Predict the structure.
Amino acid sequence: MSALPLSDAAIAKLVEVIESLAFLIPFGEVPCPDDSPWGVVVVLPWTATDRRSRGDLWLALTPDAAAEAARNMCGLAPDQPLAAGDAAEATGELANVLLGNLLPLIHGAEAEFHLGAPVSGVPANFPREGARAIDLGGGMLAVAIISEEL
Amino acid sequence: MGYHILVVDDNRIMREMVGKSVRLSPLEVGEVYQAANGAEALERLGEHLIDLVLLDINMPVMNGEQFLEKLRADPVLKHTLVVVVSTESSLPRIQRLRDLGAGFIHKPFRPEELVKAVHELVAQAGRRI
Ligand SMILES: [Mg+2]
């Protein structure tokens, strides 16, 4: 498995998804941090239906960013409490929508994929190589894709 | 009265978002039911009168494409209106879903896209009848 370099078109798509789905405001790209400030990390596996390639999308959000995404997606007021699991659920769906939008940029519009269910990732294992991070003004998000030819 | 709607998505937050979008839209909405996969959706359709299904594709147990094939093969339910609401971007798969009579909108979507897709489907169904 190796890190897939993410193009600027992929980052533009990432920005579009976090703005329109999670209503987060991106303040531009920042270096992916050395330490692991992540509160929620999800790993979303995919396989090409022709079984020629597979991979994992990693999406990591700092605790504040994950909570804000969940709050926005659930339509909660700032003083309303989040339910248990909301931040993970919101991050999982962000990963799902993001991956669905990135795969055709990488493999073309004719390719078909099976997307698995998002699972919790270990923050310290987030693959920094090839990752790109976005400043969310007080919070941060990073994404990485690793893949292999089968 | 209005449309009785079934929202099918494995993600709880997405089900809430889609449900809220239809309630806030100009569509006349009756009851809004939820299901977390295609198998649950078939159960809901057996329990309630449902006019419109808003359907995710990537789901465990029974995915949206499998659900749609079963729905179209069911003598009672086969004319149920379905709009696919999915991250799906593969053109061949989207065409297969359209061939099964479903509308399609891409996540992330704007509520007005959902309304437009429903209106197009209703107009098509009207022409078929
Ligand atoms: Mg899904």
